[in-house]
Specification:
This protein is α/β, with parallel strands linked by helices. The protein contains 16 helices and 15 strands.
Length: about 425
């Protein structure tokens, strides 16, 4: 195989892999020098000239002329008689440059050259891909579903790069089909062997924070700062926002008229309920805001233990705790305090109240558990609720709730 034919073959990689000329030349020279080292023991006395525009290359071997019989290193020295076969007027001590054709390296060496080139180009691609996505960690990225596996969705971006969205990084309500566009953040890039594995996440707090940046201009421009995000993916999230400009209402700007701005974010996250609250350095006020929509009567803080007793009227307790305990859990994560709910109310009523567990012979345990999930663990706390509201906040049917209320009313009427 002639030099030009081999280079033309190698140059195909430049178009396929979109490698720039300088990089291609560097890779080619490195590959050829490795081949020369294997053949001659050293590449120090070789010049490699590559012309990718013409698709040609030249290899020149430089040796010093020595007297016949005095050649000690055949790679760097040439006898006078051999030198005069190249040019008849060479003398001892002169330098001889002789072109080396690739065919002189041998067929097996040429095949090895091609394999080595492929390996080097893949290595170059993987290194560039690793660096590219390392810089994108924490940023939102969009890719298309290539295929869906039980434990992960495999995505492909516009450049054909593979991105993995593991099952545990998907929102519980996520459902994808081949061809769907998926948004998430690049969470990590790991090298598996020589190949980078790019992982995406839709459950990260950072994803929600970045969605605020994308969807709300004031956040993007830095007029509003997202101080902290906590979330139970697909269920509920709390976002604390602040503004250094007193003329801007950070909560109003983020939510928009009738929720217009935040609606797109909620839809992206599978209808995740998002509470946006004003950040403050006043711990008591911060805890009070974090427990929204409940109205807090007062807060008693223990700074050493990082705990807080939150006093609420009976009718506010279930709102503070929230469905499945999500509201109080997220409020604690947002503020950094362990929150303990203390009920306020009519003392006579409280003394007269009865724990729901006392009705276990008449009410099924799983029904009692449903009420407990939203902070209702006594008879009077249930009786004070609106039936339609209970249907919305629990997994109980209206008929079941009415039946429970009838049982509880009978207790106090007796």
């Amino acid at each position: 195989m002639e030099n030009i034919a081999l280079i033309e073959s190698f140059s195909e990689f430049k178009d396929d892999k979109l490698i720039d000329r300088v990089t291609l030349m560097a890779i080619l020279e490195d590959v050829f020098r490795n081949a020369l080292k294997k053949k001659y023991g050293s590449d120090d006395n070789f010049d490699i000239i590559i012309n990718p525009d013409k698709g040609d290359m030249e290899i020149w071997r430089n040796r010093v002329v020595v007297a016949d019989g005095e050649v000690e290193d055949e790679n760097s020295e040439i006898s006078l008689s051999e030198a005069r076969k190249i040019e008849p007027d060479f003398e001892v001590g002169e330098d001889v440059s002789e072109e080396v054709k690739l065919i002189q390296l041998g067929r097996r060496a040429i095949l090895a050259l091609r394999q080595n080139l492929i390996s080097k180009i893949h290595e170059h691609d993987n290194t560039n891909l690793y660096k590219q996505f390392k810089d994108l960690i924490g940023d939102i990225y969009t890719a298309e579903v290539h295929h869906v596996r039980p434990k992960a969705v495999i995505l492909v971006d516009d450049e054909g790069n593979e991105i993995v969205l593991p099952k545990e990084k998907q929102i519980p309500s996520d459902f994808f089909r081949k061809g769907d566009n998926v948004r998430g953040i690049i969470e990590s890039v790991e090298l598996k062997g020589n190949k980078p594995q790019i992982l995406m996440s839709r459950t990260s707090e950072k994803f929600l924070e970045k969605l605020f940046e994308q969807e709300i201009p004031e956040v993007f421009d830095g007029l509003i700062t997202v101080k902290k995000v906590v979330r139970i993916p697909g269920e509920k999230a709390k976002v604390a926002v602040d503004s250094y400009d007193d003329r801007i209402d950070p909560v109003g700007a983020c939510v928009g008229m009738k929720g217009s701005r935040i609606h797109g974010i909620v839809r992206e996250l599978g209808n995740e309920n998002i509470d946006v609250i004003n950040y403050t350095t006043n711990t008591q006020l911060y805890i009070t805001r974090a427990l929204s929509p409940a109205k807090v009567s007062s807060v008693k803080i223990d700074e050493d233990k990082k705990t807080a007793e939150v006093f609420l009227k009976l009718e506010e307790v279930s709102k503070a705790i929230g469905r499945g305990g999500h509201n109080i859990k997220l409020a604690g994560l947002l503020t950094g305090y362990e929150l303990d709910v203390i009920r306020e109310g009519n003392i006579a009523e409280e003394e007269d109240d009865v724990e729901l567990t006392e009705f276990s012979d008449e009410i099924d345990g799983w029904v009692i558990e449903e009420f407990a999930k939203i902070g209702l663990d006594t008879a009077r706390s249930v009786l004070k609720q609106d039936v339609a509201d209970l249907v919305r906040r629990t997994d109980l049917e209206e008929e079941t709730i009415l039946d429970v209320m009838r049982i509880l009313k009978n207790e106090f009427e007796e």
